[in-house]
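Support case: user asked for a sample of complex input and structure output to validate their parser. Sending the pair below.
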Amino acid sequence: EPEVTQTPSHQVTQMGQEVILRCVPISNHLYFYWYRQILGQKVEFLVSFYNNEISEKSEIFDDQFSVERPDGSNFTLKIRSTKLEDSAMYFCASSPDRYQETQYFGPGTRLLVL
Amino acid sequence: QKEVEQNSGPLSVPEGAIASLNCTYSDRGSQSFFWYRQYSGKSPELIMFIYSNGDKEDGRFTAQLNKASQYVSLLIRDSQPSDSATYLCAVNAGYPGTYKYIFGTGTRLKVLA
C-alpha cells in the first residue's frame, strides 16, 4: 500500500541553524500538508500546498518557514533559523484531490533544537 | 480563533464495552469532520470522516455529527485493548475549496482487559 515517507526520522540541530525536512507524498496525490506536534500537545496545522503554491497557512507559519516541491516527488519544509521552541515532531501529509479530503500522514521527523 | 475541544481523558472502558468520544467545534461554517487515532509516538491514522448530519458507520466505529449543536462524536463498539490510543478530532477550518485542518487535543482511551 502506498505511504507517505519522511526523512530524516530524527534531527538534532543547534539553535540558529537551518533545517530542511523532507517528505515524499503518495505519488498521485495533489494536496500536501505540514503539521507539527510539540511533545504532549496537540497536532498543529502549519501549511497546505496545492498546484505549487501555498493554499492555507497558520499563524505559526511565519517568515522562518518555507515549503517547496523541488521536483515531482519531494515536498520540503525549511526552517531558516531554528529556535528552541521549534523542537517538535513534524508530520507531512497528503491527500488525493479536492474531493477527497482524507489525509495520509507520514511517520514524522522528530526535530530537537539545542 | 477557530477551536476544536475534546476532553483529554483518560476515558477508561472495559473490554467489550462501547467507548463514546466527544468533540465540539467553534466554527459554525465547518463542513468536514475527521476522527484520527494516534498511538504514542506514532503519526495520526484516519479512522473516518463525516460531512452530513446524522450517523455514519464503518465496522465497529460510528461517527455522529450534529451541526446545529456543533458537536461530533465517535462511538467504538466492542472495544478492544488494541483500541487504547489517543483519539483526535479534526475539522477543516479553511475557506471553501481550501484545506486547513484544526485538531483537538485528543482524548486518551484506555480499554481494560
